[in-house]
Amino acid sequence: QELLSERDWWVLVGNSLKHYLTGTALGISLGVIIAICESASSAFRALISFPLRILRPIPPLAWIPLTIVWFGITDTAA
Fold this sequence. Notes:
This protein is an all-alpha fold. It contains 3 helices and no strands.
């Protein structure tokens, strides 16, 4: 007896892929926009430099528990 039919499995894989690609596209877009603004404006560079210097030493894996606490573990949060 199978727990998931093959169709259900592909739906779940599709949902996961959609979440991954959406997040990747959003991250790349924001990164490119911020990089362009930072290279074009010294005022923007000065504005964003301070928060980035504070956040840079925090390891990326340390953000995972914080995001789970902030947003929860649901499809809506993803």
